[in-house]
Structure formats: C-alpha cells, structure tokens
Write a structure and sequence with these properties.
Helix content is 52%, strand content 8%. By secondary structure, the protein is an alpha+beta fold.
C-alpha cells in the first residue's frame, strides 16, 4: 500500500492543522514590544518626560507613543527600544513568562507542521494523540506566558499593565491551540482503505467470476442447475451404459464364425 497519498484520513485532519497554523501565526504576529500597555510613574522614569502617558511594552523591548494633536498614539512601525536595566527590573515572573512564550512558539509551530503531514501520511491512533498532546502543551505554555502581568513593573506604586495587541494575539493563539487539541482527542479519523494496482486487478477478476454476464453470455442459470444429474443418477447411468456395451461385445462375431454358423 502506498505510504503517501492525499488525505488518507479524510478531510477531518485539516481542522486541527488549520487551527494550529492560525494560532502559530497569531503568536508570531507580535513584534516583541507590543505585549501590554504600561502606565504609572515608571513611564516618566523611562521617557524622562512627565507628559508621556503610557508605553507599549513587551518581553524584550518597549515602544514610546507619538503625540498626534492632543492624543498620544502608537505607531506600529515605530522603533522598539531596549530596556534600561536601571529602570526596568526583569524579575522571575518576567523570565518565566518569556520562557513559556518561547516554548509555546516552538511546540505550537512544530505541532502545526506535524499535523499537516496527516494530509498525506497515515497516522496511527497513538501518533495522532501525541500530536494533540504537543498542541495542548503549546496552549498551556502560551497561557502561562501571562505571568508577565505579575512582574514588578506592572505592580509597583501606581504602575499598571493592560492588554495590548500582543497579549490579545496570545489569547487567540492559546484558545485556537486548545480547540485544536480537543478536536484531536475527540476523534481519530479512520484511514481510508485504498487498493493498490495488484489488489485492484484481483478484485476485478473476482467480480467478473462472481457476476453473471450482462450481455447474453453463457451464465449459469437456475434452470441449468436443476437439470444437472444427481450423483446417484450419474452412477446408475454409467452402469447401464457399461452393460449395454458388454452385451454388444458378446453378440458381435467375426466373418469366419458367421460362415461356420
């Protein structure tokens, strides 16, 4: 049986593969400095200005807003600035959140790629479930990345962190990975049985032998079966024929014997 073919498990495998891929893309879409919005006294310390209202912060960098009219707005194409260690203290929560976010990215991307192989390769039930475990771990790791909101920069004095684009994208990614894992655990799509060329030829021969002719061929009908002799009748007919042949042998004489008679 061929090892590679299109959708050997049917179209169901496309559901978790697509969900995992979209989740992975959502996690990749952030640029590293748009995870949360930071307000409080630490903003003035970082910008050296009391007029700046907030900062966009991420795991590795932050971005300052731009004053447009009377409002401060973030330009997504703006430069990401490196953290000043004298202002921003990266504590254990910060490092743990960064590590979990990286693990989620690796597991989620690997799981999505692995699931796409189910569209052309046969997966056993165990392999299918292991793919679900990988995607589920990606969802859990992405959720643990929100430990970042427990860092000191979000909970010192009047400092406060709220959701921004990066954290919202991570929420979507964690949810999609979780749904993908559920779709894997809830159903194992049975592989389709596809005959190879040799099996197809054998099946065709069996069908020809088993099926009666559809175009006036010599098929065996029920009437022909009824007219077939039974085993006992056949033996009796053979014995009668043998006796007749024996009598004919006795009666027959040569021409010389006929003259004597």
């Amino acid at each position: 049986m061929p090892s590679l073919r299109l959708l050997p498990h049917g179209g169901y495998t496309l559901i978790p593969a697509t969900l995992s891929t979209v989740a992975w893309l959502a996690s990749l879409s952030q640029d590293g400095c748009d995870y949360a919005r930071l307000t409080g006294f630490i903003v003035a310390s970082a910008t050296k200005s009391a007029s700046v209202e907030f900062l966009e912060v991420g795991f590795t960098a932050y971005r300052e807003p731009v004053l447009e009219g009377d409002d401060w707005k973030i330009q997504r194409t703006g430069e990401c600035l490196a953290y000043d260690e004298n202002v921003f203290h990266q504590d254990a929560f910060w490092m743990a959140a960064k590590a979990f976010a990286f693990i989620a990215l690796v597991l989620g991307g690997g799981g999505a790629l692995f699931l796409w192989f189910s569209s052309c390769c046969l997966f056993s039930r165990g392999t299918w479930r292991w793919a679900g475990y990988e995607v589920l771990l990606a969802s859990i790791s992405q959720s643990l990345g929100f430990l970042w909101f427990a860092t000191s920069i979000c909970n010192t004095g009047d400092s406060q962190c709220t959701l921004s684009y990066g954290s919202k994208a991570n929420i979507a990614a964690a949810g999609l990975w979780f749904i993908s894992a559920l779709s894997i655990f809830c159903k194992y799509p049975q592989p389709k049985q596809i005959l190879d060329e040799d099996e197809e030829e054998e099946q065709a021969v069996v069908n020809v032998v088993d099926s009666p002719s559809q175009q006036g061929g010599e098929g065996t009908s029920e009437r022909d079966v009824e007219n077939l002799p039974l085993e006992g009748d056949a033996k009796a007919n053979l014995q009668v024929d043998d006796k007749k042949k024996g009598n004919e042998t006795v009666v027959q004489t040569t021409p010389a014997e006929a003259d004597l008679l």
